[in-house]
Known about the structure:
Layout: H1 2-15, E1 24-25, E2 29-40, E3 43-52, E4 57-66, E5 72-78, H2 88-97, E6 101-107, E7 122-124, E8 127-130, E9 139-142, E10 148-151, E11 156-161, E12 164-167, E13 188-191, E14 204-211, E15 228-239, E16 250-255, H3 260-268, E17 274-280, E18 291-294, E19 297-301, E20 304-305, E21 317-323, E22 328-333, H4 346-355, E23 358-363, E24 372-374, E25 383-384, E26 398-404, E27 412-418, E28 421-425, E29 429-431, E30 433-438, E31 443-444, E32 450-454, E33 459-460, E34 465-467, E35 473-480, E36 485-493, E37 498-503, E38 513-515, E39 520-529, E40 532-534, E41 542-545, E42 550-552, E43 557-560, E44 565-573, E45 576-584, E46 588-592, E47 601-602, E48 607-612, E49 624-630, E50 635-643, E51 650-658, E52 663-670, E53 675-682, E54 686-694, E55 699-708, E56 717-728, E57 739-745, E58 748-754, E59 766-770, E60 773-774, E61 778-780, E62 785-789, E63 798-805, E64 811-818, H5 837-845, H6 867-877, H7 900-911, E65 918-920, E66 923-925, H8 934-943, H9 964-976, H10 994-1004
Parallel strand pairs: 28-36, 38-45
Antiparallel strand pairs: 1-2, 2-3, 3-4, 4-22, 5-26, 6-24, 6-26, 7-8, 7-18, 9-10, 9-18, 11-12, 11-17, 13-16, 14-15, 14-16, 15-17, 19-20, 19-23, 21-22, 21-23, 24-25, 27-30, 29-34, 30-31, 32-35, 33-34, 35-36, 37-39, 39-40, 39-43, 41-44, 42-43, 44-45, 46-56, 47-50, 48-49, 49-56, 50-55, 51-54, ...
Amino acid sequence: MKHFIRRCAAAGLALALTVTAASASYALGWDLHTGQVPLSQGATLGKNIFWSDSYSNLRHEYYISYTPNENVVPTVAYGSKVLDRLTLSSMAKSLENQGKRVVSGINGDWYVLSTGSTVGLLVTDGVVRATPYYNNAWAIGFNEDGTAFIGQPALSTNVTFGGATYKLSGAINKVRKITASDTSGGLTLLTSDFASTTQNTDPGVDVILTPVDDGTGAYATQPTIGKQVQYTVDQVLESTGSIAIPEGKAVLTMNAKDNADILAKLRALQPGDTVTLSITSTDERWNSVTQALGGTYKIVTDGKVVSSGLPSERTAWTAVGVKADGTVIFYTLDGKQSGYSVGCTLSQAAQRLVELGCVEAIAMDGGGSTTIGATYPDTDGMQVVNRPSDGSQRANSTAIFLTTTLQPTGELDSYYVTPTDSMLLSGATVQLSATGLDTSYYPTDGGTVSWSVSDGGGTVSESGLFTAGSTSGFCQVTATDGSHSGTAYLTTVATPDTITISNESTGSKVTSLNLNPGQQVNLKASATYRTLALTAQDTCFTWSLDPSLGTVDANGVLTASQNSGSGNLTISAGGKSVTIPMTIASHVKTLETCEGDLSAFQNTDTATAEAETGLDFVHNGKQSLKLSYDAASGSASLATTLAIPNGESWLGMWVYGNGSGNTLMATTADQDGQTQQFLLTALDFTGWKYVMVQLPAGAVSLSSLDVIYGGGAERQTGSIWLDQLVTANQQVTDTTAPTVSVSVKGTQLTATVKDDLDQTISQGNVTLTYDGEVLTGAWNESTGTLTATLPAADSGYHRVTVTASDASGNLARASADVQPSSSRTSPFGDMTGHWAEPYATFLYDQGISQGTGGATPQYQPNKNISRAEFFALVARWMDLDLEQYASVELPFADADAIPAWALNEIKAMYSLGILQGASSGGQLLANPMSTITRAEAITILGRTQARGFTANDLTFDDAGQVPSWALSYTEILVTQGVVSGNNNLIRPSDSITRGEVAKLLYAML
């Protein structure tokens, strides 16, 4: 006892700020919550949740407290046959189909897994359905008035025939064993309760018997403790195995390998002979039982836990105990479910039953078999109330129920208050309701009730709305009409263990917030104590937000400010808090990339749209929109059908001005079709300029782009170029490209794409190529991760590249190399050991360069490459259909000097705007046979790429020597890592060698 007191005192300190325990269980831990539900006359469902310090985990117990009475009686049940196995719910349904109301039920005794045969005693309606395997087994017996006792039946079962009496060593309704040396071998009596057949698997002697009813009541017609059953012999069979058991009859059976003398006596029986069965117990209490069921262990005797012989396994348990006043406890404790109930040892379960007042107790089957059910007053059938550790109900052999045949009386006797038990956070509310129950515990009309709170904090309104108080503790809320009452059991927790925030709309957990300016989100807070969910409303928590980030009300509705920023949202209750980092960020959404067919634009009499691919007039990608106008009437309008995303307030685009002095405007429409024209920019500049303006309020679509004549001479007509139209929630110019990283392990590629402004990058903005060919991968937009399976490595070199574009058209790329699967010999006779060998080999494998040809071709890596050779390599590298360009007219004065093997290639380069030629003496020259400089080669390759890649400043010592016309391309390719210097020199004016070209072409993929 002193140990118990010390433990209470120590743990009381830990619980002082949380739940003040009404009591603690020495066996199971600290009370977290308790509740009771009235089920029927003399029957109440109890529920307790404990916290175990030893395991830092929960324990859930459920039990029925039963005061014996004649209206609600214990009912032992099994399937239609003794060997059947059914779930508790299935057995309950069978009883309900018999017209009984199942008040509650628990699982029963052990059974043999292989056969379903119950191990202990089984008595229903006063009939012995099965005797125990072991003579010293314990059982619980129930009398007709519901009273119960626990004892050892120690039954003597004998049969008398042929002038002699023999012990039924094989017992009644147990699977027959093989030899007399087996403790359950010998004579066995099987009634039609057992199964449809004898289940015998070996030869034996079977005597079919019919019970005799002499009409005097001197004999029972079925096996009964304290009475005899007289049978007459129908047949004596030499059976080779199992035979049918006729309904209402019995079979006296013995294995053919068993006792020869007894077998001879059985064979000597004749039809009409008499066989008498006798079942007796030295404890006369068993003579009057109407229901009885064996148990696995006797666990409490004279109010003390049985000190030895109990298993130490920590699991779920089922038990039945009897208190000194006759009250019966049908007990279960869940187990093997961390975070819900970790179970206990059988000794702990016994100690708990002693704490509940039991002086005698017996254990039933546990583990996955442990199941308890109840029929609540407002339901029509039994439902399982615990959580079986198998995850579902196990089919068991037997069960004990409380049943009643009481019918509704309509006479008000009490109130059923729901919810019957709850755990609440301080300040939380729960609406209680009171339903009238009649004298048979069926719902009936009640009167007007008043509410009161006792044994704990909190308040309750006239309508039954309970509000948890500021201190932790248990309380009871009672509804009464002055004569009749009912109670709910509530627990208040002042300081939770955890606070969790979720999005009310999506239900997803929130650990951080990334919002747009002005965005509103409805947050929901929830709390747990010792992993148990607490009833709580958002108003139970204190919501605190950095003022610069916006506002949050008591219901968790957060409205972001109109300005970008970052900070914290803090939610607290009872000294516990959680902090959610929050960011308000601008975003950009792509409205029109100006790639593709430009179908969102419709020509009018005054303005037309066409695709522009000349790189000087493309800002992002490989195409822009060329807007040609005729504003002779004062204005020109190009119609559009661009829908503006909801919530967007700014419009941005790149405009290539023509210095006309005219004005570029736009017209939007709202949802009612009302239009409004607004200014984009004056066209008083030449070249590219980024324009971003605020949209008219309520704009849902962009209906036209308008050029207004500004009065300049001969400026009524002309062209301007537009590219990458976007919308945004704030005025923002995004010129920062995403970051891309790529890694390859074996055949598995993983790439990540991140952007400083766009929270997500859409799948259409991410491209994976393998040697320049598009390869399909799996894109996870939420994480910005691309995964793909690459072709298996072979004898060649390969290049994989991931290219990504953000909503503003900014491009970024990253690449990785795939090495040959084995050592590769160069196809060129002069490349072995050369630094450019992998790149030249790649060009050979791809059919781009065969070198000098012949049996052993030479690549000549250190030779300066001519312009014609370079253009031919680039054209083949681009995999162009050169026949498409055969009819192109070249403007070069030295076109005749172009060798035939490079003619179509140069025509293609010129047609695509990649080759522009050099001006000399008033003539445009291709200079096909001249060597090409590094700056020229970089410029040509740069023109093959889409526009929009980042161009960082050059840091080479000779960066100032890069020609202006090559500077942007050089910056881009250096930023991408395609071009690198040597000794911090880029040597822009030096001729480029064939080896250097091979590396550039490979790196550009």
